[in-house]
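To the wet lab folks,

You asked to see what we're planning to order before we commit. Fair enough. Below is the target structure as tokens, and below that is the sequence we designed to fit it. If anything looks off to you, flag it before the synthesis order goes out.
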């Protein structure tokens, strides 16, 4: 029971003291107060902060109030030393996260400066409270937690208030999962993050301090490989002044950098279909392959000066889709012979408004034509080959283009049926290649620079339903997403109190949809004039009806969205007394272009506009093509539409530490076991409450807590009390029950 109480108490104390303050860029800030053993502040103490990976050091002096501030620290591990004459040297180690403001207060002991005091687990690392809320996902979590597909945004769901948004929404890869904007990682939600119920399009993605947002639907541009991420932060509410653009989640991601130690990794995740279940309707071997592979490598180029880091991730996936059925013309139909339809009910009779002679006075089809399976000559309103008694269903001299088109279809592979006589199983193929290269240069203790280049070549293809010959099947074709870009950062320390951070970012990306067989002039090959005027309008014209009697072929044309972004961002920090002033500007020029086919190759509507797929002239879709009774539409090709916009933002912020008095946190644990009441007061910092606050716990645990809170009520923040019941097992027939209540208070000394 005692160990359980200690564990529970520790968890509550950690929870009460682990509130984080979000900085304004992807760099961190270290603040604190240096005091002596009596609690008096120590001015002019030298606080030296060293990045243990790159050996870069920054030194700041405490002011008259014993306070220090060190700005613009990249995320990573740091070693801190505090030196001042008359006191022993104090040392501490800590890890700083993306955009974190970490408070480190150290207490010096009198003695020689040559004597060192190492502070380890007992260092009181108290994060300053803030109105911003969010979560930091560290690199170890990204690489070690299970991630199907290696999509790092899955871990953002660990942040309270963050979901994927509406189930099945296109932004999260829902629907068909083949949308050009969101096909990357669509099976695991893409990059859709809904923070506190807001739409995913309200998010703001930042990579190494520069914009990482696509400009048309506001999705993500670069998906950093999980192995390359130092860590990332998800800010969900009340962001600092520097962050604008969207009201949703702010996702800050940092690529790893090289250090003085060579480090790297190699990974491969492979899956085959040998142990998978068959898709519905299939019996043969399952052709499913998925392989994700890659690696990282980082290290020094020039020790303590130049560092490099690179990563690569590839993905190869070949996945069978469900079995599908389509209707293709028979060999006889390809010659104009539709005698196979005689005696069936598959064809319909032309409408009474077109051929009134086929109907009686009541509007019913005459017995000579009803249910006979005839196809009709729309110019004579009689079955083809009609001799007054019966018809042959043979179209003489059929339309040449129609005949050529029917010959492009594959042979039926199912017997005993005219409709749905072709069985197919399409493949979904994903080939992704992505890499990043980053270089860091410590020019001096006051000047640091970095450069990052990112490249993506991601392709997602769905094969044709009718095979390589014929562009067919909904969603078939190739979706592409090809981002390229780079970022440059320069940090200048003018003095321990004045630091400037500059960022430049450039993105050149294109995503879109390329129809199947786009490189072939299929429409011209069957004799449709003017149908493939440019390479962008290659492939087949759109030809079809209701997709029941004859499978569609063709498409509406390509869809491509090339974009560019030029971004300049600069911020200046100035520390003065209790204030940390920061002001900056963010200027971006965004170019979003747009290309869409809009059926510019032509749309042949079987049955006619307003009656697609009815076969209303001849009674059957296939015969409509040979009789030449097909409506034709052509859309307006949307060429390269261009948009240009400027995105500018300006900010100023003052972080004001009202006082530097350290805060302590106490917890009162009141336990009642077999009628006995015991109260414990504890603190994670090891600081005892003032003597005037101590008391002898009464037998009533509730009065014990009440007594304590009355004594310090003017100086406390009372957190909710947690009550619970526990059972301690025993060897007898009874169990000794006990109840515990824990509450936490925080007070300023």
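Sequence we intend to order:
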């Amino acid at each position: 029971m005692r160990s359980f109480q200690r564990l529970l108490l520790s968890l509550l104390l950690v929870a009460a003291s682990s509130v984080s303050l979000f900085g304004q860029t992807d760099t961190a800030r270290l603040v604190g107060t240096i005091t002596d053993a009596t609690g008096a502040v120590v001015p002019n103490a030298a606080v030296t902060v060293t990045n243990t990976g790159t050996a870069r050091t920054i030194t700041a002096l405490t002011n008259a109030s014993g306070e220090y501030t060190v700005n613009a620290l990249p995320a990573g591990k740091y070693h801190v030393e505090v030196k001042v004459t008359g006191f022993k040297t104090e040392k501490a180690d800590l890890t700083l996260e993306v955009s974190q403001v970490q408070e480190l207060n150290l207490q010096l002991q009198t003695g020689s400066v040559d004597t060192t005091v190492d502070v380890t687990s007992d260092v009181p690392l108290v994060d300053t409270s803030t109105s911003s809320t969010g979560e930091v996902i560290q690199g170890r979590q990204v690489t070690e937690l299970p991630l199907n597909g290696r999509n790092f945004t899955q871990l953002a769901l660990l942040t309270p208030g963050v979901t994927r948004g509406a189930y099945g929404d296109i932004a999260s890869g829902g629907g068909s999962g083949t949308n050009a904007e969101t096909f990357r990682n669509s099976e695991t939600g893409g990059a859709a993050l809904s923070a506190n119920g807001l739409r995913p399009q309200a998010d703001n993605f930042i990579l190494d301090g520069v914009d990482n947002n696509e400009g048309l639907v506001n999705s993500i541009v670069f998906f950093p490989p999980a192995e390359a991420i130092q860590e990332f932060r998800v800010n969900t509410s009340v962001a600092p002044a520097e962050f604008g653009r969207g009201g949703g989640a702010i996702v800050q991601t940092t690529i790893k950098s090289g250090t003085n130690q060579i480090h790297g990794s190699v990974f491969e995740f492979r899956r085959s279909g040998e142990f998978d279940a068959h898709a519905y309707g299939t019996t043969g071997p399952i052709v499913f392959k998925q392989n994700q592979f890659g690696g990282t490598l980082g290290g020094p180029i020039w020790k303590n000066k130049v560092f490099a880091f690179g990563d690569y991730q590839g993905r190869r996936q070949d996945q069978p889709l469900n079995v599908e059925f389509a209707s293709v013309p028979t060999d006889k139909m390809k010659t104009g012979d539709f005698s196979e339809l005689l005696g069936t009910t598959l064809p319909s009779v032309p409408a009474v408004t077109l051929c009134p002679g086929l109907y009686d006075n009541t509007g019913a089809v005459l017995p000579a034509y009803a249910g006979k399976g005839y196809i009709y000559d729309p110019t004579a309103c009689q079955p083809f080959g009609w001799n007054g008694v019966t018809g042959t269903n043979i179209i003489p001299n059929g339309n040449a283009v129609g005949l050529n088109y029917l010959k492009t279809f594959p042979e039926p592979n199912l017997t005993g049926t005219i409709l749905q006589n072709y069985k197919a199983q399409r493949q979904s193929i994903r080939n992704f290649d992505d890499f990043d290269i980053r270089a860091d240069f410590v020019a001096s203790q006051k000047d640091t620079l970095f450069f990052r280049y990112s490249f993506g070549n991601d392709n997602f293809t769905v094969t044709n339903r009718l095979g390589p010959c014929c562009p067919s099947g909904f969603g078939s074709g190739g979706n592409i997403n090809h981002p390229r870009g780079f970022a440059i950062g320069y940090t200048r320390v003018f003095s321990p109190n004045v630091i400037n951070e500059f960022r430049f970012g450039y993105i050149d990306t294109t995503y879109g949809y390329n129809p199947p067989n786009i490189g072939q002039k299929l429409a011209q090959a069957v004799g449709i004039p003017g149908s493939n005027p440019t390479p962008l309008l290659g492939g087949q014209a759109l030809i079809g009806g209701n997709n029941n009697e004859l499978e569609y072929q063709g498409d509406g044309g390509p869809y491509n969205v090339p974009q560019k972004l030029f971004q300049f961002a600069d911020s200046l920090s100035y520390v003065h007394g209790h204030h940390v002033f920061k002001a900056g500007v963010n200027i971006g020029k965004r170019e979003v272009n747009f290309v869409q086919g809009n059926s510019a190759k032509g749309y042949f509507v079987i049955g006619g506009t307003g009656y697609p797929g009815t076969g209303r002239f001849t009674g059957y879709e296939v015969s409509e093509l040979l009789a030449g009774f097909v409506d034709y539409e052509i859309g307006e090709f949307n060429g390269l539409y261009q948009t240009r916009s400027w995105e500018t933002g300006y900010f100023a912020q003052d972080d004001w530490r009202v006082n530097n008095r350290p805060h302590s946190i106490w917890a009162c644990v009141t336990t009642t076991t077999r009628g006995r009441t015991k109260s414990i007061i504890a603190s994670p910092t090891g600081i005892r409450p003032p003597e005037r606050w101590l008391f002898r716990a009464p037998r009533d645990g509730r009065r014990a807590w009440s007594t304590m809170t009355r004594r310090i009520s003017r100086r406390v923040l009372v957190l909710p009390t947690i009550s619970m019941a526990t059972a301690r097992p025993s060897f007898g027939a009874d169990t000794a029950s006990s109840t515990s209540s824990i509450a936490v208070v925080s007070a300023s000394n």
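Structural context that might help your review: The first helix runs from residue 2 to 16. The chain has a mean pLDDT of 80.

Thanks,
Computational group
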